[in-house]
Amino acid sequence: AEIEEMRSRSKSKKWKKNIQKHFDKELTKLQRMNPQVAEFSIQKNYLDLMLDLPWEEFSKDKFDLKRAKKILDRDHYGLDDVKKRIIEYLAVLKLRNDMKSPILCLYGPPGVGKTSLGKSIAEALGREYVRMSLGGLRDEAEIRGHRKTYIGAMPGRIIKSLKKAGTSNPVFVLDEIDKLSVGSQGDPSSAMLEVLDPEQNSEFYDNFLELGYDLSKVMFIATSNSLSTIQPALRDRMEIINVTGYTIEEKVEIAKKHLLPKQLKEHGLSKKDLQIAKPQLEKIVEGYTRESGVRGLEKQIAKMVRHAAMKIAMEEEYTKKVTNEVIVEALGAPKLERNKYENNDVAGVVTGLAWTRVGGDILFIESTLSKGKGQLNMTGNLGKVMKESATIALEYIKSNADQLGLSPDIFEKYNIHIHVPEGATPKDGPSAGITMLTSLVSLFTQRKVKKSIAMTGEITLRGKVLPVGGIKEKILAAKRAKIKEILLCEDNKRDIDEIKPEYLKGLTFHYVKEMSDVLDLAL
Ligand code: ATP
Ligand code: MG
Description:
The protein is an alpha/beta fold. It has 22 helices and 16 strands. It has helices at residues 2-11, 17-32, 38-52, 65-75, 80-96, 114-125, 140-144, 157-165, 188-196, 232-236, 248-266, 278-288, 295-313, 324-331, 384-399, 401-404, 410-413, 433-445, 471-480, 493-497, 501-504, 515-522, and strands at 103-107, 129-133, 171-175, 204-205, 212-213, 219-224, 238-242, 349-356, 359-371, 376-379, 414-419, 453-455, 458-459, 465-466, 485-489, 508-512. Magnesium ion binds next to α6.
């Protein structure tokens, strides 16, 4: 009876002849099997998979771009450029009516809304949504499946996800494509290449399914925290959309419009039970989070809501309008002092702008002298390139001691120590070059660095300043830290010109070419 049911289900599938034939053959095999043996259930699972998988079953696209825009706006605050790029992409899709355009890749620091944008895109298009996390995936078989003869064989995750989606044209989010790693069991990125290649993916072969499956109508969207670790061939297939971090003002808006209502709902409360006004939201952002995105902020808000929920459940008195005192009660004393750099009122300490995996950040470079023989020590978990920057900086100072007004024997009498807190965070890259040099000059001359100034740039041995990357992220971090003046290489002006003017409010930029300009401006 079971077999008859399967046969009748197969009639409703829009299968090509060869697939129907394959199914009938496999079904006959099942019929001949003894239901007691293990192979029977494997074979039955296999046929169920064929029946459950959507074949040429499409949802109809909603190409109403105004509606699409509305949905993107409803779910996400700000991100104007990103939304515009997405709408443009959908417009092209609508006109061309195929999926041969490059894959979208949303790239940016954690918690800025990449994954959740993917979901909104699915809704905007009226497509099913599936997500597959590639983080830590190292076995090709996870993508492509195991052959049926293998014990415990299963289809790969692409096929499994499509079964879950229930249509052959879902929006398929490939989360964290940068964390795909090469393991011992084949190369998963080459399997991913096949998945994403419009020339090949109409016949994607899964080892378990033993049939080609058409992926060409699937809309793939990748997300990534870093571009450098994406396999180059994969990266070539993708159109990168940069999702940068948020300013404090934007975070406050996101918290007010999205994060707080969401958390209230999740805890079964309503706006009447708890209100957090903007100044208090700002306190939470500044005192308890340090990030480009809003994931940490969402957690802190959840804590605030839990705090209120507990009071309500215990029928205790509490204030519905959150005050500063309530924040401290719920979250503890503020963990981060935003003006940390103002305390560094000693020669040898300089604020740099860094770009890390979690987005932009400010960092401090400290250097000190001690009696010794001219040794250079570096601490703070610095990478090779960063250490080289320090060596270059010191060499430059040595060869320009005259101009800097330093006596040459100073280098033989002291040891120099450069430290970059926090020691546990790994740091690398050439962009702290000018900061290190400024720190050393400040130390040797005992001239303090101007307040509220930060810098980023690479140096050469001859004292030229070179442009560096991650400018937008760095600028946002500087603003968060209430920096006022920023020193940059002249060639980075282009990057600044691309940033929305409202992000730059309150900041003054100095563009420099030579190290001597940096020292003139900073000391
Ligand atoms: P990761 O790189 O760590 O995966 P992500 O960019 O995918 O991070 P999400 O998980 O999409 O981050 O976002 C974290 C949370 O912040 C989600 O709840 C999301 O809805 C919310 N969020 C992020 N940006 C916005 C925004 N602009 N408006 C409203 N909510 C936002
Ligand atoms: Mg994500």
